[in-house]
Amino acid sequence: MKNHNNIGKIYKNCTETVKNKVIDIDLNIEDIVFENDTKKNFLLVGEVQSGKTAKIIELIKHAVDRGYDFCIVFGGVTNLLNEQTKHRFERGIPNEICGRKKDFIDSKKITKNLRFNTNNFFYILTFLKGSEQIKKLNNLFMELINFNTKKVLLIDDETDYATVISNKHDTAIHKLICDIWKSVIYGKLVLVTATPFANILSPENDPLYFQDILLMESNDEYTGSKFFLQNAKKCYFQLEETSKKNISSWENAINISLANFLLSTVLYKEKFNDEKSEFLLNIDSEIPRQDKAVEFIGKSLQKYMEFPDNFNGWLKKAKQDKYKDVLIDEQRIMKQIMNVINQIISDDSIIWLKSGESYSSGKYDYAIIVGGILLSRGITFKYLLTELILNARDEKNSVDTLLQRARWFGYRKIHDRYQFMSIYMNKEISKSLSESNEAINFLNIKHKNSSLKQELEVFQEKKLKSTKLTGKPRIQKILTENNNE
Fold first, then answer.
1. What is the pTM of this model?
2. Closest Cα partner for 368 from 306, 416, 301, 319?
């Protein structure tokens, strides 16, 4: 256990050395709330699917232990992600810490009759990152809480999306979070993301701009960008063409990836007796539209059942891609695949994740999930075996958007699941994934530099050919969905 009486001195030395831009890498996450500064902004960075929510839970427990009264969490940019975060908090945070009981508050509980008793309770407030929800929180908090006497931990999850401003645009969400943060006298603001490039490149005079960076370290079980690039021949499969205008190209992509999913499901089940598996289709809501993709998948599965000989061609292609060195009893495997298809149809487990829809990983034995933005931010698909990315942009891919789509990252070494995973993409995405890994490596090496922002701009200009670090946030889509809550 560290001597936290020296934390202020550690930070002072660190910030003097690098102009108040980085945190000492040896400090742990709890040091955020041990830090002596009355008020400070932190950027907490962890790779996609590396366990950031678990770190947030750990931080909240340390904050309450240090006497913090309110932990306000903007838990995501979609209803689905926000609900997932709330459920994890309910399971992971004890009902009582240091003699004070836990009380959860969300937007539905906030009324003018609400009263807070911070002597006997600590409060965890979880909100969707939507302008209407934050506005409600902001207005009532100004009336209900005297922040002059309260310690506040404010956590902005997925901070690079909808919160970040640039020189050309601002958002209602950003303004509202700024208003809340300005009203806090004693507290810490923790900006959490896997893709911090938009945050780093945003204006440094922004009230939400970070002062220190803390990089999360994942353990050896984590499989992220570097790991999958090292295993690219086994896991990444390049499609010839996935043109949005060429319907047959994306239909072929769906057929081959579905065949891979069904074959992988059966082989994985045989080896590990694991009944659950998931297939993700990440596709734009534009052409080809998600509803058409869902319809096509349903019809394809029916055709596989009715005309197994026709399906056999796709199955052989999938075997050649992934399992050419595996001895397979084709007749027996085909019978098991038909059983899996029959169960998918019977369970109606082709899920279209759109606004208002919910999904819990593991709800079905075999699930096929179709979506766009809702698949690309924070949601964990524990039983993922196959993912098909069809929403490649016509212009340069953004590193942050591409990495957020990488739902295959995570702790995939259990039962060697990664060996049965397949990711289908076009050649542009394949190139972009390699450059995205370079961007991650650059951040890991350079995050302590006082000139990080300037160096990142140079890196983007000189090193990235098929990608850019960040794109314009699709704010309108987020606001439209979140305000329907």
1. 0.82
2. 301
